[in-house]
TrEMBL record:
GO molecular function, a single term: transmembrane transporter activity
Domain of life: Bacteria
Region (Disordered): 384-404
Organism: Actinocatenispora thailandica
Pfam families cross-referenced by the UniProt entry: MFS_1 (PF07690)
Keywords on record: Membrane, Transmembrane, Transmembrane helix
Annotated transmembrane regions: 12-34, 40-62, 69-87, 93-110, 131-154, 160-179, 207-233, 239-263, 270-289, 355-375
Keyword S-adenosyl-L-methionine recorded: no
Keyword Transmembrane attached: yes
Protein's UniProt name: MFS transporter
Alphabetized InterPro entries for the sequence: MFS, MFS_trans_sf
Amino acid sequence: MLALPGMAPLLGVSLLARLAITAAGMALTLYAVLGLHLGYAAAGAVPAALTAGLALGGPLLGRLIDRRGLRTALLVTVVLQAGFWLAVPALRYPVLLGAAFLAGLLMVPAQAVTRQAVAAMTTGAQRRPAFALESVQGEVSYLVGPAAVILAAATLSPAAMAWGVGAAIVLGGAIIAALDPPLRAPGEAVGDVAADRPARRAWLGPAMIAALVMAFGTTMLLGGIDLAIVATLQQAGQVSWASVVVAVCGLASVTGGLCYGALARPLPTWLLLGLLGAATVVAGLAPGWRWLCVAVVGTGLLTAPTLATVADTVSRLAPAGVRGEATGLHSSAMSAGVALGAPIVGWAIDAGTPATGFATAGLAGVAAALAGFLLSRRARQPLGEGTGVAPDPEPCVVGADADG
């Protein structure tokens, strides 16, 4: 995949931007605690505002990319991000909340752009391993980004830490704009963008809704796992080992993504998500950190493959003229899942035990897999002339040659 023209530079700069974007919530939390001397509850509201903006901003930025082009969207977001992160040390708490929401609403769309470019730069047979590699990139950003910010907070001033994160976001967005990766395959290039946009009802059907539901369910599951891990180890008096368990889960996900990308045949998205949910429920039975390290390997191995198949499905179902909006909806569904996962799992832990938290996260994934399966069974995608949507002979099974 890295030998494809333009792929290695795209994934390299995208990783820089995604590391910083992933770390942005932690950076704002630590700034509120260390710089504004707030409690953790008040500090947590700042990244929550950022996440709410991310969830709402995905489709808006996607439409902007579809209508005005990639560089226009990146220019708008890069300028706003530069202004926000430069101003963070001067903002009072109430203003910081509103500004964080706006920053999330107009965050540099590195993830969405990378997925659109991957879809444009690969053929049907190449897309599954390419999206697997993109999902591995996402796992690496979650492993490294927040940890790097915590290290920076221990060695730098709160303002310098915030400026460093902002600089990485701005630099990543600017380099992506300079690279200007293609967002459409050569055969999809058109002259009239407005005429190329099919009606929303023509593409936002049961199959696409199934993919979005499964994206939401996957990240809702993942959003609650860390909290369940900490609660389990706290109950066992081993909370200091939580970072080790989380690292094992992340490394297993990277391994799973690389292995899945090398497979000759794909698996249905709903099956991968269902297995991911079941593995998460089982992880709640682990009594201590050693067994929990073993248990989360199953969850980790299935994480990147599930995320990759969902991204691949969205790219295949979206016509070229609305791929930005569809990818934005996908990003919004994932952000909403992350935002809801932790509080719902936290409520389950408070009402029961840490194992209840694992069960809640896992069953949310199983429920999303079942809903995705039932919706995709209803899906009928006729091959319309010029729509860019190929029929899906097996609902939500990716990896078939979409070019034929």
